[in-house]
Amino acid sequence: MTQALFGQLFLGLINGSFYALLSLGLAVIFGLLDVVNFAHGAQYMMGAFAAWMALTYLGIPYGWALLLAPLAVGLVGMVVERTLLRRLQGLDPLYGLLLTFGLTLIAEGLFHHAYGNSGFAYPVPGWLRGGVNLGFMFLPLYRAWAVGLSLAVCLACWFVIERTKLGAYLRAGTENPRLLQAFGVNVPLMFTLTYGFGAALAAFAGVVAAPVYQVTPLMGSSVIMVVFAVVVIGGMGSIGGAIVTGLGVGLLEGLTRFWYPPASSVVVFVVMALVLLVRPAGLFGRER
Amino acid sequence: MHRFALALVAAGLAAGAAPAPAAEKLSDGKVKLGVLTDMTGYYADLAGPGSVLAARMAVEDFGGKVLGKPVELVSADHQLKADVASNIARKWIDEGQVDAIVDLVSSSTAGAVMPVAAEKKRITLLSGPGTTAFTGEKCTRYNVHYTYNNWALANGTGREVVKQGGDSWFFLTADYIFGKSLEEDTTKVVKAAGGKVLGAARYPSPGTTDFSSYLLQAQGSGAKIIGLANAGADTVNSIRQAEEFGITPKQSLAGLLVFITDVHSLGLEAAKGMYLTTAFYWDLNDETRKWSRRFFQKHGKMPTMVQAGVYSSVMHYLKAVQAAGTDDADAVMAKMRETPVNDFFAKNARIGPDGLLRHDMYLARVKAPKDSKQPWDYYQIVKTIPAAEAFPSVEAQACPLAKR
After folding, report:
1. Cβ–Cβ contact B248 with A under 8 A
2. Which of A4, A109, A212 sits opposite B216 (nearest CB)?
3. Neighbouring residues of B177: CB distance < 8 A, sequence distance ≥ 6
4. A76 lies in a domain?
5. Among B180, B210, B247, which would you mutate to test the A interface (most chain A Cβ atoms within 10 Å of its Cβ)?
6. Which residues constitute the domain of residue A73?
7. DSSP label at residue A235
8. ipTM
9. Interval B18-31 mean pLDDT
10. Would you say residue A271 lies in a domain?
11. Contact: A213, B40; criterion CB under 8 Å
12. Residue-level pLDDT at A1
């Protein structure tokens, strides 16, 4: 009984760290650009595919893919921001949502056309194979690594945004971009870089996820809904909120799977509805 | 194939049985087939564009014409949605003059289209879906369930696994009509064979990618066998994650519906040793190899049983139209039932009054990487399950049409 509970909680933590990583990128983008980035799932998928393609066609191993895939997807993101998203600035956020949603469909369609839907298996790198028996469950080494890595990246992002000068600019840009520009900061460039960074985070999550899940064109669309709920619960644009809520939702799902499994995929949306009723700006968000 | 059809007509003429100039008996001056399948979703690889290709190959091999009039082929994506599927079917029948609807992968869409087609007297040729009830309580007069059903899968894999000592089961079930029906059928087989079922974890599908928590439940149950009552990407992910969490090889998996495309994307290392039941394998004999290589040249992948079934069902339909001298659904259905199927897909197989095509099935085991000699050399055929054992008997079916 307790063994099963611990097992499910631990799995919840693993999922939660993925949610945290993904919602972090969404929160960063929304915070600064006011864009609801629906392409986040596609960018996650592209990250996983980039890692797979690098390994299959070029023989580039996992370690390098962790660095290169986010870089590549980040660049694509920056081009998208420069050429498309920028034109929607100042309009209702709904337009950005529609645009990124359309881009998602195009990206998924292209990958589907080229690779089919069953996708590919990305092998777990040799040095992370195997696992440890924790007594209450068998913990695959790779999942432990994924949790550690995700949390480390989340904390690093939080630190940069909340505690450094660069982060201060970012936060200032969120509050009042015009004033910041008047101080001589190149705000448009900052927007481009931020969007690229958010996309790179999604791609990074994709690379981390590749050895765990099958790499398929649709892998993003199945996870993105939960991630959006996480961001809404945490408060749109709140960095710390996204991280804490991501982990919290993972644990909550784990608990639900233990008590009443059929509800586990709905529970996050129930919580979202409750939070919206009580605190419309989200748990960690501020009213604007 | 074309020659065979001609020979059939010639034989008919010689016997004086062929109806005189029958072309007028074709509605709208043509025969039109619609392939309704999942073009981009979870089942697109096992059916989808490959099913459309298989249907097109059948039409081309038949000669592109029947009774001197053209055979047309259309296709559409039902997106795995029952309402989309029934709307397309309605449109095809009312405005598009479609005479028969083919494939219908995923049971929820097939279940929505069958009554629509039956009401308007159009034929459905099911290749993709598995629900046994389509020739049971949900049977219609104008439906043929061609390639496989859950009963056959449950019997083939379930019985053999219990026989080999796997007598306690836990199911990992896709929570919709197909998965539940497969779980139910297999439960019956396992119990009948003397095994017991310890429980099931039902997960929302499509949409689940992380199976670890369900697998943990399966592990906690202590069952010897974890039965995978799912399909496509779900099966692939659950097999991979079972290996990752050290569940296999301590507990064994039984894939209840595994397609060759799944094994291809899993890789033999992860899939090796798994039992599965299939209606078709490309490397069975010269005939299957010949057809499959042609398919491979155009598609880049070996055919799944669903795609091979689509080809065979379209061919059988066109031959029946030719023989009946009309595309009237009642006459064609009668001809299809009367004539045994004899091609690379099935030998001496007959369609029962319930609409089920009873043909041999194969119990296969996935090869280990070292035993695989060439690309797509994945299965070792353990045994051939004769048609009479592979499918439920007509009497055992809850179909009112079969009772008369």
Report:
1. no
2. A4
3. B107, B108, B111, B131
4. yes
5. B210
6. 2-278
7. -
8. 0.71
9. 67
10. yes
11. no
12. 63
Phi, psi of B340, rounded to the nearest 5 degrees: -70, 150
CB-based contact, A56 to chain B, within 8 Å: no
Q: Kindly state whether A117 is in contact with chain B, defined as any CB-CB distance less than 8 angstroms.
A: yes
Examine residue A285 and state whether it is found in any structural domain, yes or no.
Answer: no
The rounded distance, in Å, linking the Cα atoms of B206 and B107 is 13
Query: Of B55-59, B71-75, B246-250, which gets the smallest average pLDDT?
Result: B246-250
Query: Which pLDDT value is given to residue B13?
Result: 46
- Structure-derived torsion over alpha carbons of residues B133, B134, B136, B138, reported in degrees to the nearest 10: 90
Interface test with A, best of B40, B216, B234, B258 (most A CBs within 10 A): B216
Report the residue of B79, B211, B212, B307 to disrupt the A interface, i.e. the one with the largest count of A CBs within 10 Å.
Answer: B212
Helices assigned H by DSSP within A164-234: 165-175, 177-182, 187-209, 219-234
Q: Which domains are delineated in chain B?
A: 2-148+284-355 (3.40.50.2300), 153-278+363-386 (3.40.50.2300)
Give the global pTM.
Answer: 0.76
- Residues of A numbered 215-234 whose beta carbons fall under 8 angstroms of chain B's beta carbons: which are they? 216, 218-219, 222-223
Residue A283, in any domain of the structure: no
Kindly report the CATH number assigned to the domain that includes residue A92: 1.10.3470
Residue B18 clears pLDDT 50, i.e. is over it: no
Nearest residue in chain A measured CA to CA from B200: A261
Count CA within 13 A, CB hemisphere, residue B219: 25
